[in-house]
Write a structure and sequence with these properties.
By secondary structure, the chain is an alpha+beta fold. The protein folds into two domains: about 180 residues, no CATH class; about 80 residues. It has 18 helices and six strands. Strands 1, 2, 3, 4, 5 and 6 form a six-stranded antiparallel β-sheet that branches. Helix 9 packs parallel to helix 11. The longest helix has 16 residues. The chain is elongated, with a radius of gyration of 30 Å. The N and C termini lie far apart (about 90 Å).
Length: about 375
C-alpha cells in the first residue's frame, strides 16, 4: 500500500497539480494557452508565446508541484521554458519564490547552478531510474539499492542530483523532459508555414534546422525551390553536422550544373576538413563539368593522402576529361611525391591522351622512372 501511494504521488508531481498564473513574459508578447492531458486523468496548461511579429516564439509552463515523499509536501513554484520543438531551454522562479531542501534549508546559488546543469542534461541518469530506487523509505537520502537497480555507481547518481533535494531534482527533470515535447511538436506543426520553415532553416538552433529540412527536402532529395538558398546556406554554415546532413539529403542532380559545381568547389575550399571529405564523397556519383574537373586536377597534388585518393578516383571515373584537365594532371607528374606521380600517370594512361604536350610529359616521367630503378 505504501509503495502504490508513493507511486501515485510521483505520478501527480511529475505532471504538476495546478498552474500558477504569472510568468516572465514581456508585455508585448501574445500568449495562447493549450490544455494538455496526460494519463487520461491529469491535465495542465501549456502556453505558447508569440513575438512582436505575431510569430510563435517559445513554450512555457508556470508550474506548481508539491514535492511529496514522506507525508510532508514542499510546494515548488517554478517556470519552465522550451523551444518550439519541445527542447527544454531554461527555468526561472516567480518573484519571491525559492527552492528548499527536505530540511527546509533554502537553495544556495551553487544549488541553483547545479539544478540548471541537471535540467540541461537531456541524457541524465534520471531518465531511466525509478524514483523509488533513488530514495530510501521515509527519507530523501540516496538508497544503497540504486547501484544494483539503476546499473550505476552511487557516486555517479550523486552527480545527477542535489543533496537533500533528490526528489525535487527527479520531479523537475521529468517535467522538463517529459511527454509534453510531443504535444509541442504537434502544436508547432499546426503553425507550419513557409515563413516558419525559413525561420527554422536560418536559425542557429540545429533542432529547428533538422526539423525543417525534413519538410523541404523530399525522400528523393529534391529541394522545394523556395528553400534552395536556405539549404545552401546550411551547407556553408559553421555547424558541420547540419551542413553535412543538408549535403547528404540533397539529390545528386541538384549539383549537376556548372554553376552549382563551382559553388560547391568554393564551399570545399573554405570548409573544414570533415566537410571537405563529405563534399568529395558526395561528388562520387555526380558527373563533372569541365571547370570542376580542372579545379580538382589542380588541387589534388597539394592534398593529403586521403583527399588525394578521393580526388584522383573522382577524375578516374569520369567518362571523359577536358584537354585542360589532362594537361594539369600531366604537369603534376613533376611533383616530388613519386607515389602521387605514379598514380596520376596510371590514370592519365587510361584516358589515352592525344595532346602532344601531355604525351611528352608522360614519356618523360616513364623515362625518369626507368632510370631510377
Amino acid at each position: 500500500m505504501i509503495r502504490s501511494t508513493t507511486f501515485l504521488l510521483i505520478l501527480l508531481t511529475l505532471s504538476g497539480f495546478s498552474e500558477r498564473p504569472e510568468g516572465y513574459v514581456r508585455k508585448s508578447e501574445k500568449i495562447r494557452e493549450f490544455t494538455i492531458t496526460e494519463n487520461d486523468t491529469t491535465s495542465y496548461t501549456l502556453k505558447l508565446a508569440f513575438n512582436e511579429l505575431d510569430q510563435p516564439s517559445y513554450f512555457f509552463r508556470n508550474v506548481f508541484t508539491p514535492v511529496c515523499l514522506t507525508g510532508e509536501c514542499k510546494p515548488v513554484y517554478i517556470n519552465f521554458y522550451w523551444d518550439l520543438l519541445g527542447n527544454y531551454t531554461r527555468y526561472d522562479l516567480p518573484p519571491g519564490e525559492v527552492l528548499t531542501k527536505m530540511d527546509h534549508r533554502e537553495f544556495k546559488q551553487e544549488d541553483y547552478d547545479k539544478l540548471r546543469d541537471i535540467l540541461d542534461n537531456t541524457n541524465s541518469l534520471l531518465k531511466d531510474v525509478a524514483m523509488e530506487d533513488l530514495v530510501g523509505k521515509g527519507t530523501e537520502n540516496l538508497a544503497d539499492s540504486v547501484d544494483a537497480k539503476a546499473g550505476a555507481t552511487l557516486k555517479t547518481v550523486k552527480n545527477e542530483v542535489i543533496d537533500g533535494a533528490v526528489y525535487t531534482c527527479y520531479t523537475l527533470w521529468h517535467i522538463a523532459h517529459g511527454k509534453v515535447a510531443d504535444e509541442m511538436q504537434k502544436i508547432t506543426e499546426s503553425y507550419r508555414t513557409d515563413d516558419l520553415l525559413h525561420r527554422f532553416l536560418t536559425s542557429s538552433n540545429y533542432h529547428y534546422q533538422y526539423w525543417a529540412m525534413e519538410k523541404v527536402v523530399d525522400k528523393a532529395g529534391n529541394v522545394v525551390e523556395a528553400f534552395t538558398t536556405d539549404m545552401l546556406q546550411i551547407i556553408r554554415g559553421k555547424n558541420v553536422f547540419t551542413a553535412r546532413s543538408a549535403l547528404q539529403k540533397i539529390s545528386n542532380p541538384f549539383f549537376a550544373s556548372n554553376a552549382r559545381q563551382v559553388w560547391l568547389w568554393e564551399t570545399y575550399q573554405s570548409a573544414g576538413y570533415p566537410m571537405q571529405i563529405a563534399i568529395l564523397k558526395k561528388l562520387a556519383k555526380i558527373p563533372f563539368q569541365n571547370s570542376l574537373a580542372e579545379a580538382t586536377a589542380k588541387a589534388m597534388v597539394n592534398a593529403n593522402r586521403e583527399q588525394f585518393t578521393l580526388m584522383l578516383k573522382l577524375l578516374e571515373t569520369q567518362p571523359k576529361l577536358s584537354e585542360k584537365a589532362l594537361q594539369t594532371m600531366a604537369s603534376e607528374l613533376d611533383t616530388p611525391n613519386q607515389d602521387y606521380a605514379t598514380e596520376i600517370n596510371r590514370v592519365l594512361t587510361n584516358f589515352h591522351p592525344k595532346n602532344r604536350a601531355v604525351v611528352a610529359k608522360m614519356n618523360a616521367f616513364k623515362h625518369k622512372a626507368t632510370q631510377t630503378r
